[in-house]
User: Which sequence fits this backbone?
């Protein structure tokens, strides 16, 4: 017999989020402008693929700056003791140049999270699902794909990954390996500022490209997740809608301001 309130009794309650002093354990160069920072968490956290954390810097005079960064590592099993964040250096920025030029292994950096209940996906949510990432906007999809691989899921997933140049394709070897392993993940890469001399498509994401990807998936797409700079998300969402996909299936995560440059 159903017990009133039984569902709420089984629901997990997120603990209050405090700032914690995470320690940088490793720094890996992913591309000329992106480095991965691996943080050890004194307070391990449970998160869902797609969530992000806040990273806060405090200057000697007390001035503080905080920015959001998607978690690229997979959650679990259990609470994550370590997080990977892939941070792109924006030359005129505050936080990202500090992380690239000054932050070192063993430094303590304040982190708070996980945050974000909207832009998440786990294999339990089902598929087929289409991810569209521009530049460092591939970050949340890495967490989703790594989690999917870690639990041996075969839910159909496709990633359309756009970058300006071949050398800016983050995690490309790992993504290629996942795509060739035959587990229901397909990858399409398009480069916007490097034509020819590579096996990828050239040009921006448009309706034709999305249509090709969706047709190859064979079953109707359940959801489309788009992540990147604001102009990138605009272009990709327009292309997705023009390809005939229901706009209510689209979720977006935007990394920058509306006027922060042209799409990658
Ligand atoms: C939910 C969420 C997740 C994010 N995840 C990531 C991530 O995984 N990796 C990552 O590198 N960034 C990510 N970002 C962006 C990040 O939060 C910062 O905005 C970025 O690092 C710039 O910070 P900054 O202090 O260096 O530059 P700022 O001092 O904030 O800005 C400097 C200049 O760059 C412009 N600008 C700001 N952001 C962008 C951008 N993304 N693209 C182009 N121009 C921009 C500003 O308009 C300004 O002119 C995320 C943002 C959000 C909202």
Assistant:
């Amino acid at each position: 017999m159903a017990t009133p309130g039984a569902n709420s009794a089984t629901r997990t309650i997120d603990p209050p989020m405090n700032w914690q002093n995470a320690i940088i354990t490793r720094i890996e160069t992913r591309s000329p402008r992106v480095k991965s920072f691996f943080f050890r968490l004194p307070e391990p956290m449970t998160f869902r693929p797609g969530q992000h954390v806040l990273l806060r810097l405090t200057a000697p005079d007390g001035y503080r700056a905080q920015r959001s960064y998607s978690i690229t590592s997979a959650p679990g099993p259990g609470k994550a003791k370590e997080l990977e964040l892939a941070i792109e250096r924006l030359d005129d920025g505050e936080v990202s140049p500090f992380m690239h030029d000054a932050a070192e292994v063993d430094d303590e950096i304040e982190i708070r999270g996980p945050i974000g209940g909207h832009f998440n996906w786990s294999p339990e949510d089902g598929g087929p699902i289409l991810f569209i990432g521009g530049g460092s906007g591939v970050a949340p999809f890495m967490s989703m794909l790594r989690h999917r691989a870690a639990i041996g899921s075969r839910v159909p997933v496709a990633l359309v990954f756009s970058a300006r140049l071949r050398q800016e394709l983050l995690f490309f070897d790992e993504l290629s390996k996942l795509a060739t392993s035959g587990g229901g993940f397909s990858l399409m890469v398009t480069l916007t500022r490097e034509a020819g001399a590579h096996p990828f498509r050239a040009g921006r994401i448009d309706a034709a490209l999305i249509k090709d990807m969706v047709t190859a998936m064979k079953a109707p797409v359940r959801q489309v997740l788009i992540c990147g700079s604001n102009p990138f998300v605009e272009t990709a969402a327009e292309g997705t809608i023009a390809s005939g996909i229901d706009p209510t299936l689209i979720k977006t995560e935007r990394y920058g301001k509306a006027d922060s440059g042209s799409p990658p």
Summary: Helices lie at 6-10, 95-101, 139-150, 172-180, 207-217, 230-242. The longest strand covers residues 20-31. The CA atoms of residues 60 and 98 lie 14 Å apart. Residues 123-254 form a domain with the Rossmann fold fold (CATH 3.40.50.80).
